[in-house]
Design brief:
- This protein is an alpha+beta fold.
- The protein folds into 2 domains: 17-113, Arc Repressor Mutant, subunit A (Orthogonal Bundle); 133-273, Serine Threonine Protein Phosphatase 5, Tetratricopeptide repeat, CATH 1.25.40.
- It has helices at 39-51, 58-66, 74-89, 114-130, 134-146, 158-185, 189-202, 207-219, 223-241, 247-258; strands at residues 17-20, 26-29, 32-33, 56-57, 94-98, 101-105, 111-113.
- The chain has a 4-stranded mixed beta sheet with strand order 3-2-1-7. Strands 4-6-5 form a 3-stranded antiparallel beta sheet.
- A hairpin with a 2-residue loop joins strand 5 and strand 6.
- The protein is elongated and about 70 Å long.
- InterPro entries: AfsR-DnrI-RedD_regulator, BTAD, OmpR/PhoB-type_DNA-bd, Sig_transdc_resp-reg_C-effctor, TPR-like_helical_dom_sf, WH-like_DNA-bd_sf.
- Belongs to the AfsR/DnrI/RedD regulatory family.
- Residues 9-115 form the OmpR/PhoB-type domain.
- Pfam families: BTAD.
């Protein structure tokens, strides 16, 4: 879905309206849950939030709610779902009919959207890491990841899940990789090894994670294990995709083989630019 204006990313300091997408889709006012109903009103709310102030046409909402088989009454049902969301989250946020569809208006203060908070912390964490401040980066990126409560977009209709969930999960994984990079620069290589091992088991094609594990193992004095990690990466890529490791992973392998001094510097190798899943 295309995105328009940005949400406010200033955290809400006082109780107010909270709209949550990074886990089950939920809404809370002053800490108390609002009853959104079933998957369809949750889908309407989610689609409007992801549009960030852009009008979401009725045709797009129809596809997100029913896929290729909408009922004849779909316009009336969309109106009902939008009205329900308007009643629940108003007056702090406004759901407005703007032909050919609907949009949501959020104030600059008083409404917290967890996705906006995550993206703001992740952006600032990435900037701190690039600027050579791994301590700030690790703190900000941990804060970003702590916003997640589970698998994003829980409880919405399947067409919206197929359209958006993988993109949001990729954002989470990138932030996680950057947080791990920050911890590596802070000398936490030994503590990172079990976490990286588990992440690679769940995401075996992310070469950036493979590179970080190799570096962490080498810095922990486990050169043989670092070389074994490369062999495992190469075997997996060949078996799953029929390709060799990328050039940067091959260069890292050569550096581990020769014991290159750069592997022990506080700045990590350039594997942050390694591709994730193809």
């Amino acid at each position: 879905m295309a995105q328009g204006r940005h949400w406010s990313t200033e955290p809400t300091r006082t109780p107010g309206l909270t709209l949550s997408l990074l886990g089950p889709v939920e809404a809370h006012r002053d800490g108390r849950p609002l009853h959104l109903g079933g998957a369809k009103p949750r889908t309407v709310l989610t689609a409007l939030l992801l549009a960030r102030g852009r009008v979401v046409p009725d045709s797009e909402l129809t596809a997100l709610l029913w896929g290729d088989a909408p009922p004849a009454t779909s316009p009336a049902q969309i109106h009902t779902y939008a009205s329900r969301v308007r009643q629940l989250i108003g007056p702090a946020a406004e759901v407005e009919r703007r032909r050919p569809g609907y949009l949501i208006r959020l104030p600059h203060r008083g409404v917290r959207v967890d996705l906006a908070e995550f993206q703001d912390h992740a952006r600032r964490g990435a900037a701190a890491l690039a600027a050579g401040d791994p301590a700030s980066a690790a703190r900000l990126l941990r804060g970003a990841l702590a916003v997640w409560r589970g698998v994003a977009l829980g409880g919405v209709c399947e067409p919206l899940v197929r359209l958006e969930r993988d993109r949001l999960e990729e954002e989470r994984l990138v932030a996680l990789e950057q947080r791990i990079d920050a911890d590596l620069e802070l000398g936490r290589h030994t503590a990172l090894i079990p976490e990286l091992t588990a992440l690679i088991a769940a995401n075996p094609l992310r070469e950036g994670l493979r590179a970080t594990l190799m570096t962490a193992l080498y810095r922990a004095g486990r050169q043989a294990d670092a070389l074994a990690a490369y062999r495992a990466a190469r075997a997996t890529l060949d078996e799953e995709l029929g390709i060799e490791p990328c050039a940067e992973l091959r260069r890292l392998h050569q550096a581990v083989l020769t014991g290159h001094p750069s592997l022990l510097t506080t700045r990590t190798p350039h594997h942050r630019s390694l591709p994730g899943s193809p």
